[in-house]
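ELAV-like protein 1, Notothenia coriiceps. Tokens?
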Amino acid sequence: MTQKDVEDMFSRFGHIINSRVLVDQATGTTGASRGVAFIRFDKRAEAEEAVKTLNGQKPPGAAEPITVKFAANPNQVKNTQIISQLYHNQSRRFGGPVHHQAQRFR
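Tokens:
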């Protein structure tokens, strides 16, 4: 699928902020899709509806159903690791737990 195909499929769920289709650089086939795309909607509810509606569906012309889910946020993983390190280091240094509040990103 091209980026336009992906945007056309997802645009009915809301305003797309940006999209990206990953391409295979290693094969030498310029622009060959790796079968992975990222869509960022304006509102979380729009993304949730797209996941609910499209996950497991087979787009026209596709051989297999697609998986639609929320992408892992690398910053969240990194922040969780840092918070975990701080928690354990602070506990040892001060003898008590450190309270922290997780941030939510849209």
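DSSP finds three helices and two strands in the chain.
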